[in-house]
Amino acid sequence: MKIILADEHYGMEIGIYTLGDLVPDPQSGKTIHASERLKEIIEAARMADEAGLDVFGVGEHHRLDYAISSPPVVLSAISQVTKRIKLASTTTVLGTVDPVRLFEDFATLDLLSNGRAEVIAGRGAFVESFSLFGYDLDNYDGLFEENIDLFLKLNSNEKVTWNGHFRTPLFDAEIAPRPVQKGIPFWVGAGGSLESAERAGKFGTGLTMAILGGDPKRFKPLVDVYRQTSRESGHAPEDLKVAVTGHAFIGETTQQAKDEYYPYYAHYRDFFSKEQGRNHMSREEFEQLAGPDTALFVGSPQQIIEKILTQYELFGHQRFIAQMDIGGMPFKKVAENIELLATKVAPVVRKETKNSKLAAQADK
Fold first, then answer.
1. pTM, 2 dp
2. Please, is 182 exposed, middle or buried when counting C-beta atoms within 10 Å of its C-beta (0-12, 13-18, 19+)?
3. Rounded mean pLDDT of 128-153?
4. Cα(341)–Cα(339) distance, rounded to whole angstroms?
5. Strands 242-250 and 206-210: what pairing?
6. Bridge partners (DSSP) listed for residue 56
7. Which is nearest to 292 in space by CA: 302, 282, 284?
8. What totals of helices (H) and strands (E) does the chain contain, helices first?
9. What is the DSSP string of 54-98?
10. The Luciferase-like domain covers which part of the protein (predicted)?
């Protein structure tokens, strides 16, 4: 089976994303206001763009402990202070948004950003949006499947006739505005579900895997079924793309990174695990999660490089996106991490993955 690796002229894309959580700083006990959090997110995107990173993403939630409910609105603001960085939803809860409205919003973002909009669609870790927007949770999977199908048709055609189960039909409907790009890049997000990976392969979309901990090898079957299903569905191998997302924190040394990150990571986990009845994360548990063979990207720049390249050997993916600003972390630390990712990690990863692609071509 042919594995598609990173672009031969560039190497792997490197970026960052945020969910905009509103968690108290474990040091001060203070919670930043949503308005200030959004200003920091826009500034982080500007810094990432200026530093030469490739992707900036924002995720959708509909809870008081998150600041972002509308990714296209936030990304549109970001588009006006950035020049080249790609702007993605990470993720859009596709089961509870009308695909026509979603396409119009991201086509508008694409026009405002001169062709930088992308959609990463997921089913959502939380389900509040179903009752909030009047959708039946019993249709959780069916809505997701149908909305992918409709969005891809809207993406490819200026006029659409379509009929489904969960919304009114379209009859020769004009789909406007049209984006700058030929089509808005569309990815299916997967948190470990083979079904999601298979669905991405069937539709020929990109596959974005959220690998937030544990042994990354457990995600290899997702990539395999994605590529196999894509091939069986008749999609061109060169059109298939895989991305990895994960929590990350970079320090000058691995020990420094662990010491600085643990209070925020543990606080983040504790804050959002309280609904599940989990106990406080101990330092010992954190040390195990941050080990050299795990998927938690915490360490020196060299440690982060090694983890990314180890996963690259497994997946042959084209993109890595790091979530850094969690658990009430002060913006100063986020800014330092953006700089380290852009200056110490990204150049090495791009070079190594570019060389790997060239070597693979030479062996043919």
1. 0.94
2. exposed
3. 95
4. 5
5. parallel
6. 16, 87
7. 302
8. 12, 11
9. SEEEE----STTBS-S-HHHHHHHHHTT-SS-EEEEEEEEGGGS-
10. 12-315
277 CA to centre of own chain: 27
The CB-based long-range contact list for 73-76 (8 Å cut-off, 24+ gap) reads: 74/20, 74/38, 74/41, 74/42, 75/109, 75/113, 75/117, 76/108, 76/109, 76/112, 76/113
Euclidean distance between CA atoms 5 and 339, whole angstroms? 26
Q: Please check whether residue 13 is in contact with residue 57, taking contact to mean a CB–CB distance below 8 angstroms.
A: no
**How many C-beta atoms lie closer than 10 Å to residue 45's C-beta?**
26
Q: Which single residue is written with the structure tokens 């509870």?
A: 96
DSSP 8-state class, residue 217: G
Nearest to 320, CA basis, from 5, 57, 15:
15
Give CA–CA dist 15/341, Å, rounded.
Answer: 9
Q: With contact defined as beta carbons under 8 Å apart, do 361 and 3 qualify?
A: no
Domain 13-362 has CATH 3.90.330.10: no
> What is the tens place of the pLDDT at every residue in 240-284?
999 999 999 999 999 999 999 999 999 999 888 776 667 789 999
Sorting pLDDT into bands at 50, 70 and 90, what band is 4? very low
Rg (CA), the chain: 20
8 Å CB contact between 65 and 22: yes
